[in-house]
Every structure is written in structure tokens, then in C-alpha cells.
Amino acid sequence: MNNLCEHIAVLSKEVIRELNIQKSGLYCDATFGGGGHAKEILSRLNKFGRLLVIDCDLEAIKIARNLALQDNRLLVMHGFFSKIVTFASQLNLLGRVNGILLDLGVSSLQIENSQRGFSFMRNEPLDMRMNNTCGQSASEWLAKASVQEITWVLRTLGEEKFALRIAKNIVQQRQWKSIDTTQELVSLVLDVVPRFFDRHKHPLTKTFRAIRMHVNRELEEIIQVLEGSLMVLSSGGKLLVISFHSGEDRIVKNFMRKYSLRRSLIVNNFPLIKVQDAMCCFSQYKLCNVSRIFPSHQEKKNNPRARSAVMRIAEKL
Ligand SMILES: C[S@@+](CC[C@H](N)C(=O)[O-])C[C@H]1O[C@@H](n2cnc3c(N)ncnc32)[C@H](O)[C@@H]1O
To answer: Which is the closest atom of ligand 1 to the Cα of 38?
Structure first.
């Protein structure tokens, strides 16, 4: 990765305000990326404060490790954030973390500089893995997936209306030539999707995003890290999640609702409570203070990537 492009941290001011950083606190940035948010958090900690950073991308981890060489308050873990409980437990941080930040999706560094095929604007190998040390690349998946499987991914994760047409074209054409590059995928999609069907979105955006989300198991990862956050946060600890996709945001919303609802069930002594819900009411983890934050008009103007961002926040009781 070179320095052609930098990642601009989204909702940076709001993240710092909502984390309400205690100088000697323990924090976790589970999506280090280019380190934009992490550096802001670090600059507010004193010598007793600690910041655990996680990223599954080795290029991002390289940046984090370089930073850690000059700053021993930074603890760096390479891997998926679904393993947050394991990482926190290795560092003896379970139940002690004052704030967790999840800034979901891919960074501009990955899109612009990684040469792993995240962008349909360049011709690169069709890999799309954030962590290319394991799992299946997009090209490997497209070589074997059935029409039904590809259609499901494009429809569910990409909300692509022409999912079936695209899937059929991929499966038909791969008999003659494997799909190894972004431009090969681009032509297969453009063959069958009307170019001006959606005035607001490029016809390739949905397909590329859906395949990326599938290859990286992005929604499954979110579900696991959210559940894990309950074990990692201290009482009063904040959970901040920035999403860029309606599917991600729905998972976050439902998770936060689920844990704050249980609290209101106790408070109101709701009479029709189910037995398993009643058990949950007495579990020690509940989230409250549910709110939602969007980037300002000015931020969206300065950083187009921020346009679809939404941040949800919850506080552990
Ligand atoms: C939007 S960027 C974060 C940018 C960062 N907040 C900044 O200010 O530079 C998302 C980062 O999260 C990482 N990431 C996404 N999903 C992940 C997962 N399941 N486990 C670990 N890291 C993940 C990506 O590799 C990427 O570097």
C-alpha cells in the first residue's frame, strides 16, 4: 500500500464527544483502518490510558504497529473483530473497557491503494478480502457459486434488481474464462444491467458491495462483535457503531433495542412477559441511552464517503 490516498475519519468530532474519554481509561477501536479515530482517542489519554486497536487487514496493522513503536499506550491485535472477547481476555481487559468504536466497512486506503479489487474504477485482481491471509477471494467464490447462491447474495446484500440476470451471465461466461479481474466482472454486469436504470447509483456499486460483504462475512462479523461487546465493556462503557449500509444499521438497531427493551420490561413490570425473556431481564448486560447521529451537511460536502454514515450509540448499564 502506498500513500497515494488517505482515509478521512468519519464523524470524528461526534465520536470523541460521545466517547466522553476519561484520561486514564481503556478504549477499543475495533476498526483501526488508517488510524484516524485511534489517533484522536490516543491524544486524549494520559500515560495510564490504553487503546486496544484491532484490524483484520495486515496493511492497517502495519500502520498500527508503527504507531505503537512510538506509543506504548497502544495495544495492537491482528484479526477479526468477532474475536473481540478473545483479544480482550488475552490482555486482561474483559469487563474493563470504557468505550468501543466500530467504524464499519472498508477504508479509502483499501479501496484506492490495496490493489485487491474493491473498486470497479480500476483493473485489479478480484480478491476483495480485507484479510487476505485466510478465506476465499471473490474470484474463487464466483468460480464455484451456483446461480441461486449468487442471486441471493446480490439481492439480499446488494438490493440488486437484476441479480438473477447478472448471476446467470456470470455462471454462463465462467465456462469459457474464469473471472479473475475487476474489469472482467464489470463487463459481465454491464452486459445485462441497463446503464441508466438507477439515476442515483452506478450500476456496478450494488454488485461490488454485495460480493465484498459476502466474501468478508460482514454481517455475521457485526452480529458477533456486538454480542462480544457486552463482555468487554465496563458498566457505563459506551458502544459506538458507524454503519454505511442499511443491512448493517438494522442489525445494530435491533441489537441495541433488544438489550434496552429488556430493561423497560423490568421497569414497567410488563404482565405478558415470556419465560425466556424474563430470564434475560435478570442477565447482567443491558444497554440504554439509544440515540442516532448523522454527519453534518458540511462533513458530507467535504467527505463524500460520509454521506451514508449513521452512528448509533448505547451505554452499558
Ligand atoms: C472504515 S475503516 C476504519 C477507518 C478508521 N476508523 C480510521 O479513522 O482510519 C474500516 C476498517 O475496519 C476493518 N475491518 C472491517 N471489518 C473487520 C472485521 N470483521 N474485523 C476486523 N477488522 C475489520 C477494515 O479492514 C478497515 O481497515
So the answer is: 8
